[in-house]
Amino acid sequence: MRDPPAPNPAAVRVSAPDAADACDLPSDLHLARQAVRDEAAFEMLVRRHAAGVHRLAAGMVGPGAADDVVQEVFIAVHRGLKGFRGEAAFSTWLHRIALNACHKAIRGKGPPTVSLGDAPEPAAPHNPVHAGEQADLRARLAAALQTLPADQREAVSLRELSGLDYAEIAAITGAELGTVKSRINRGRAALRAYLTGQGITP
């Protein structure tokens, strides 16, 4: 039996599973083991995690480059599934790959730039004024993250954008738990100062 074909990068969509079905979904570990041979299981993993990876990438490299990073991440995940033994949580393994992809993008393209044109469109832009305000806020938040030192931006993004707890972040980054907490606290303080200077109340 041949390995399933690698995923088409253009087919990686940033979406999430229906909340009503969440209780019936198989675990990440179960899907990861199935996905070695079953493309449908891999697609389920993509649907489950693509939105979170996109949020992380947007915070790390800027919204304009986030789609490319998401594609790279899931191509790498697909290639690496045979070697995933489940010794760490799938989410931890996935976020390590995502951080590596973000760092690669930063090295390859230099400091990311953020403009209003890069900001993702709101889901339901019925009110043009509100839509413009939301796009402006997203762009300012993305710009604020880019002002942080790399280690703080990484920790804050994993905490605030990916919703990971401190222990998970420590496992992903290889930093001590106290170091992770310190980086997040310093990063949050710097973000508050930056946003306040921009006339935004955090």
TrEMBL record:
CDD domains named among the record's database cross-references: Sigma70_r4
Coiled coil: none
Sorted UniProt keywords: DNA-binding, Sigma factor, Transcription, Transcription regulation
Domain RNA polymerase sigma factor 70 region 4 type: 139-191
Cited InterPro entries: RNA_pol_sigma-70-like, RNA_pol_sigma-70_dom, RNA_pol_sigma70_r2, RNA_pol_sigma70_r4_t2, RNA_pol_sigma_r2, RNA_pol_sigma_r3/r4-like, WH-like_DNA-bd_sf
Pfam families, A to Z: Sigma70_r2, Sigma70_r4_2
Taxonomy, superkingdom: Bacteria
Domain RNA polymerase sigma-70 region positions: 45-109
NCBIfam families in alphabetical order: sigma70-ECF (TIGR02937)
Similarity field: Belongs to the sigma-70 factor family. ECF subfamily.
Full protein name: RNA polymerase sigma-70 factor (ECF subfamily)
Organism: Deinococcus radiopugnans ATCC 19172
Classification of source organism: Bacteria, Thermotogati, Deinococcota, Deinococci, Deinococcales
